[in-house]
User: What shape does this take?
Amino acid sequence: MQFHRNNLSEDTLIDLYKKLLFPRLIEEKMLLLLRQGKISKWFSGIGQEAISVGVTYALRPDEWIMPLHRNLGVFTGRNMPLHELFQQWQGVEDGYTKGRERSFHFGSREHFICGMISHLGPQLAIADGVSLAYKLKKEQKISLAFTGDGGTSEGDFHEALNVAAVWDLPVIFIIENNGYGLSTPVSEQYRCKNLVDKAAGYGMEGVQIDGNNVLSVYETVKGVREYCIKNQKPYLIECITFRMRGHEEASGVKYVPKEMFAHWLEKDPIKNYELFLIEEGLLDHLAVAAIRNEIKEHIEAELKIALTSAERTRGNAADRKRRTERERDDVFAKPEPGTISSGEKIRSAAPAGRTGRFIDAIKEGLHQSLVQHHNLVVMGQDIAEYGGAFKITEGFVDEFGKERIRNTPLCESAIVGAALGLSLEGFKSVMEMQFADFVTVGFNQIINSLAKIHYRWGQNADVVIRMPTGAGVGAGPFHSQSNEAWFVHTPGLKVVYPSTSHDAKGLLIAAINDPNPVMYFEHKALYRSITGPLPESYYEVEIGKARQVRTGHDVSIITYGMGVIWAMEYADAHPEISMDILDLRTLLPLDYKSIRTSVNNTGKVLVLHEDTLTGGIGGEVAAWIAQNCFEFLDAPIIRCASLDTPVPFNIELEKNFLAKSRLGEMIQKLINY
Ligand SMILES: Cc1ncc(C[n+]2csc(CCOP(=O)(O)OP(=O)(O)O)c2C)c(N)n1
Assistant: This one.
């Protein structure tokens, strides 16, 4: 292995050696602990340390890194206290994730590390978002994300690299090509000669280097970093390396030919670098032994601290109530008191002297938010000059510019990921799904990245996803779905669904002010069909509060979105029935207090929604009422929902599909019960 000293100082070269040795010695200890049953799992990076260490050494300490399961050297390179890392790996409550996450699945704002989720791929687009933030702030910084060779087959790899290229983002993508996925060799993973060849396809530069040579990695990343900042471009680096142990310790290495280990042992990154330093006269065997001893002693001392805290938290197991409260409490970030995000000053709107259409309300809420928050970025397909599929953002690009009103390539997953990256750097973002249906291809980032990040390691995701939803316009199975229930089932998200112009504006403003991820459903068929009071002021409708539309004593209709319109139409046409109509407005969290009041008003409840019946929110509401308001009920709770079929295209079939076609019949049945 050829090492080129260039003009690196003696101190730097020795410091790098220590940084390289540290994760190796930690790992050797971890393997021992594993054998003793003191930890449950371990993903080894032995043989690959030069990559993590060289990369981290080449970056500024305040540049975000998105590491994976083999990047211990990133965590140690950023000087995370080792006892806290041990606590994390042991899953104790004093650890970085309070015992909620395993191994390397966590991040730390203090160390500018955004750790992986289990899913391979999403971390790449988060780096895009961070780099976009640097670019918008005109900071001379890059972000950097890792992937394995296996991870390059994920669609997220393609999306992230493409967005980085199209948006000229200063981001470095590092592939650690260690020859295997979990067990799958690279010959069954891709067909191009080298993974770095893919760079050209995205219109970016790339280079392949020896990933076991710490000086190559360090010098390359240092140079590439300067290139990315100067040219405002991304870069792909493929590091050739080898994993000396199994994917995780229990999975073994049977699938790897034995001679490979002998071959790669010769290329061991630490042994070779040590030899080089000895040959250069910078170290001798005594010095090597002293460094090793010093590190080992440090490891033992830090481990002791972690083991003590493990004992202590085990002793606390009885306090279930406190734990439950803390667990629930950490799902969402709290707004800073007194800030706009807290909503304190802007909850109520002045009485509306004017009216506006539903679509005007959304547009106005978004517009006022852009004026209010200079750190708000809006992203979506065709939203800039074209103004979006529904023209919500028409004219915005002239006023706010292309940096803040961003057309995106066709890649929902990467844009949700980028939105999270923006949030890491203090930006707010609104992403427009062109149709709510297309959220399926951005699903992972919403469910697993946005929703869980605050619970996992205290980082908020300040992201709103606008979801033009619903049927009734003859648009067929893929432009008409109601999919709000998917998100209501995901702790960590808030889900809002207005049905009036007033609420559409106020809830959008509230969603943008909220520091947490909010799914904002807007029914397409309401855009131009309803008009209502629309205050001019900048105001919030509080998330989590239902609206009592009408108060009555015969029957309660608990509903939201289009259901509110249907219920009101029915009530208008049947003045002989005293209907109590509750518009939920927020589906997560539900306003149970208002639900209880409505049930108490009538004793007869129909839960109505446009979504299909099975697994819809109606089931949740009905179950809660049955469990908590049984004493008020005079009849079984009825659910009125759309048919359990995909949404048909033919307008008559669609009418038949929709809940509305059965509403009258079901109300009558309930009244007559
Ligand atoms: C989306 C997704 N699919 C499958 C897995 C299961 N899995 C975990 S690691 C791994 C292999 C990863 O290979 P590679 O990207 O080459 O990284 P390496 O583990 O070799 O460092 C697989 C299949 C996963 N974590 N995420």
